[in-house]
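Request:
You are asked to prepare a plain-text protein record giving the amino acid sequence and the backbone structure tokens, at your earliest convenience.
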Amino acid sequence: MNKVIKTDICVIGAGSGGLSVAAGAVQMGADVVLVEKAKMGGDCLNTGCVPSKALLAAAHAVQNARTASRFGVTTGQVEVNFAKAMDHVHSVISGIAPHDSVERFEDLGCTVIQAEGRFIAPDTLIAGDTEIRAKRFVIATGSRAAVPPIPGLDSVSYFTNENIFENRVCPEHLIIVGGGPIGLEMAQAHQQLGAKVTVIEMMTILPKDDPDMVEVVRDAIKASDITLYEGAKTKEVKSSGDKVRVIIEHDGIEITLEGSHLLLATGRRPNVENLGLEQAGIAFERTGISVDARLRTSNRKIFAIGDVTGGLQFTHMAGYDAGIVIRNALFKLPAKVNYSAVPWVTYTHPEVAQVGMTEATARARYGDNIRVVKWDYAENDRARAEDDTTGFIKVITSSKGHILGAGIVGRQAGELIGVWSLAISRKMKIGAIAGMITPYPTLGELSKRVAGAWYTPSLFSEKTRKIVRFLLKLG
């Protein structure tokens, strides 16, 4: 006989989105059941954002030591202990884990069930030996690494983001299939930590980002001795003793690459299997659960948020979605999502960050009725002081100055993009950024300078000079 629990909200999945809903709802007075079959904290904490950024931090520290001589600092031979770098990664995970733990959420008042959840009816979920009947359900089961159908893959060992952070030996030669954010971040991290790295990309690297910014990243990747094949088809993989061979086709030529390790970084797949979605009356496809602007599924008492919807697969999006669900489920407000000001960042060096429209998407929508302004890091005094002047900021506006999008490639781009996300979400014009006061010297001046550059053609025009001369004649 199953144990029966009746509750206000049942959240399925304890990743960033599910935890945000559970914590918010229970602290606002709702009765909450949280169901998770694997690790608390989900992909972001255990196999995604947190470990990847921790490994990049270790790698960048190595690179800074190697290049310190440009500041007159002699470091001698730089040695890397790869296992200790991974110790750092897991210490960061361990430090954050208590915030996402079963104990914390039980202390908040949630009932936490560590078992796989499956719908058996539109208002009922089975998790372990417990039957949960809820007024509202929230599906936040996230996504997993997509494994492409490469011939021979079942005969070799390979990494995805889900197990690469368990590796404690620096690869002799890491071959990465996939040139998106995960592939490039892991390529740079492992190269800086001492591995030979090859990246294979079927199309172009970072296809969602502005091509001008991607070119800067591409140059940096190639300059770091990472071998990059773009427009290359991975035809087959084979085991060769303790090595792995990857056969690709590039520019019409078949090339065989031999490496010590293989990483697949070819996108994500929503976790929609084994949830009993049909029994709950929830429409879905392999690409994710269908939701409306209020994040309701076809069963209006069930919401879906984050990666499982097949939309923008960022941790911060799952958190944003959680706020929309809480307003709908708890306060009965018809809150709707607005993804027009969603920022995203790839944490290579240089970083690349984007929010709103790229130049290409803006031109496709508005034609020539846009304006594009750029400002180089080389014109920023803080960047010069830190000898890191690679990159630029680009802003796209309407002809009247309404901000449509912004992109930054360069040092700390991810820290700088936030002001542009705010500006777009609040429908600000470029003048608001041009008029703000920024401390000197900071990289934040890049935003003010690029905004000021928008006014340069009119401010220093012949018409303006005539007006000034006329006014000066008046005394």
